[in-house]
Amino acid sequence: GAVVSQHPSRVICKSGTSVKIECRSLDFQATTMFWYRQFPKQSLMLMATSNEGSKATYEQGVEKDKFLINHASLTLSTLTVTSAHPEDSSFYICSATGLAGGVEFFGPGTRLTVL
Amino acid sequence: DAKTTQPPSMDCAEGRAANLPCNHSTISGNEYVYWYRQIHSQGPQYIIHGLKNNETNEMASLIITEDRKSSTLILPHATLRDTAVYYCIVRVTGANSKLTFGKGITLSVRP
Hints:
The complex is a heterodimer. Helices cover 0% and strands 51% of the residues of chain A. By secondary structure, chain A is an all-beta fold. Chain B has no helices and nine strands. Chain B has strands at 9-13, 18-23, 31-38, 45-50, 55-56, 61-64, 70-75, 84-92, 105-110. In chain B, strands 1-9-8-3-4 form a five-stranded mixed sheet, with no helix packed on it. A four-stranded antiparallel sheet of chain B has the order 2-7-6-5, with no helix packed on it. Chain A binds chain B through residues 1, 4, 6, 31-32, 34, 36, 43-46, 49, 51, 57, 91, 93, 95, 97, 100-109, 111, and chain B through 34, 36, 38, 41-46, 49, 87, 93-104.
C-alpha cells in the first residue's frame, strides 16, 4: 500500500503553546487528506477533511481556529494545535487518498501530551 | 453513527483461520465494504475492500453475502502479530468520502 508519514511521532509541550504536526504522502499525490483524533480506549474520530489548495472542512464540534489545517501541496498537510491545553492530549492521525477518492492510507500517528 | 455492527471481541489460535464477521444491513448500492486494522498505538492499516464480489489479497480474503448485508474477513493463518482491533466500514468511493470508525472487533491470537 501507499506510504503516509507523520512527524513528529511524539511531542510533549507546555500548556498554552502551539504544536505543528506534519503529514506527508511519500509515494503518491494526495488530493485529499484527513485528520483524526483518538482518545484512549476510543475509536478514531474525524476532525477535518482537507483538499490541496482549499480550506479544510471541519466536523461538527471541532474548532477551526484551534486546529489549523494547511494543505499547501499534494504531498503535505499540517495540523497546528494552537494554545494547547491538557484536554488536547491525544493521538492524532492523518490519512490520505489519491485521485478519485480511492483507498485511504493512514499515517503512524502523533502522540501529543500537553502538560 | 457507524453503519456496521461487529462483535466486541474474539480470539483464535495461532496458525488457524480467523473469521471476523460484520453486519451492514443498511448498506447502499454504491457503498463498498472496507476493512482496516489498528495495532496498539499505531495508525490504522488498510487490509482489503470490496463491493459485491469476494476479494483476496496477500493479507486476507473478504467474503460478502449475495444480499450484501454482511461480510466476513478471513485471515487464513493467524499469527500473534495479527492481534489488533479490526474495523469494518462501509463507504462510497469518491472525493472527500469519509470513513466512519465504529468500535471494531478486538482479535486476540493466542499461542
